[in-house]
Amino acid sequence: MDQVARVLQFLAGDPQADRVVPPTGFTVRLTIFTAAAMAFLAVFALALSLATGRLADRWSDALARTATVRISTAPGQLQAQTDAVLEILRTTPGVADARALDIEEQRALLAPWLGPDVPIDDLPVPQLVELTETEDGFDAEALRLRLSAETPGAVLDDHTRWRRPLVRAAQRLRMLGLLSMLLIALTTAAMITLAAQSALAANARVIQVLRLVGARDTYIARAFVRRFTGRALIGAVGGTVLGMLAIAFLPSASSAGGFLTGLGFSGAQWLWPLILPPLVAVLAFWSTRATVLRMLKELT
Amino acid sequence: MIELENVAQSYGGERLLSDISLQLAPGSFHFLTGPSGAGKTTLLKLCYGELRPSAGQVRLFGADVSQMSRDDIAQARRRIGVVHQECQFLDHLPIHENIALPLTVSNRDTTAEAENLKELLIWVGLRSRAGALPPELSGGERQRAALARAIIMAPEVILADEPTGNVDWEMSQRLLQLLIELNRMGKAIVIATHDLNLIRAAKSQVSARVLRLKDGQVHAAGADL
After folding, report:
1. ipTM score of the complex?
2. Cβ of residue A9 closer than 8 Å to a chain B Cβ
């Protein structure tokens, strides 16, 4: 409660204390601009992290739940082998459902590659069996051994081979997004520190006068800290709003297929960027405070 | 209130002041004189904690300066009024806010002290100039404003460094009268000046001790002044 009261008091401010430091137009604009630019970038880094997170989840989820058995054998034996495979799958623990794709489905799958008019009946197309896992999953190695023993033409493809690198790439992208956020935060702190330093150097005489008339360090610091926190907050709000607008009006990528995900926020994720302005303000508060208190000890 | 005991002060290896002992008691009036560069300003800075002595001990209101934190020094400054040689104002604030600055920085309610401030402005003759910015004031007006700022916290000691440095004789007499009045109210006064006429003018009205700084030492000046 005490902390909350202090924060509120700090935000309400002391107009008299604020006036003791002369307003300096240039550093004001620089600080606001920096905070805005950094918040804008942070919105994108955040969107990247969230989107790649979604991507990784989607890929591992959608692909992990299904697997395919491909049966290629002499045409005459195809039906018998398919029946045998379906029977094996039915008795395999961890397989929820298995179903042989019919000719129309297979045609639809091949159409994008071979065109719609290919006489698929005349081609030695393997029979595909789609299976769905239960929650616990099945033992792919055991199933593979059993299939190769009983139905030599059947090959299990559980997608892990090409799913794994995709998921890894998505996870790496998410890590890069988080790393970018961290770098943006550090850069913001560094820039605000530099701005505060130059403001302090420019106001060395003011500080000297304040010390002369008995001002404590915390009083002098507060005048600067409040100012920089306020500017950083204003800038960050502006940058965040612009970043969110830019993402909201991003051309939709969903027509390219549900496999990829658009860079952006979905649903409650739109709330995430809203934490950026207070975060930048807190960052500005601490970096200015540390800078001012450190420099005051050196000045007088 | 302010005591210096065997104090020495060196600047970059060069000894400026050595073996200085001085006591400022309530109601005392001191002149500090000597050629420029003799260390008058340095000695005053030691008295308000701006400098820490290289050797010896300085005590402000009983506390050893070398043991005081920055906040302790700030607290002590509120009981010491300093009239600086170059006045040192905040040029972006009108003069009445500059005079009230010691109240502002100690978080005192300036609106409650408004009456006080008005009387003070009348007393130093700056009533009509209250809204002016410091750079718009004449030298004498700035000196009087500096004096007003030095005493607004009702300090126990007033240290004035060349308060009549860049004002004419008539104005310096007025400033001196203000300081003598404060002394009669019980304040300890120290005036650093090389203006011997000012000292003579003061000695006819108040029993002032004159300290001469020479070769880094203080000597009590005789009755020749």
Report:
1. 0.85
2. no
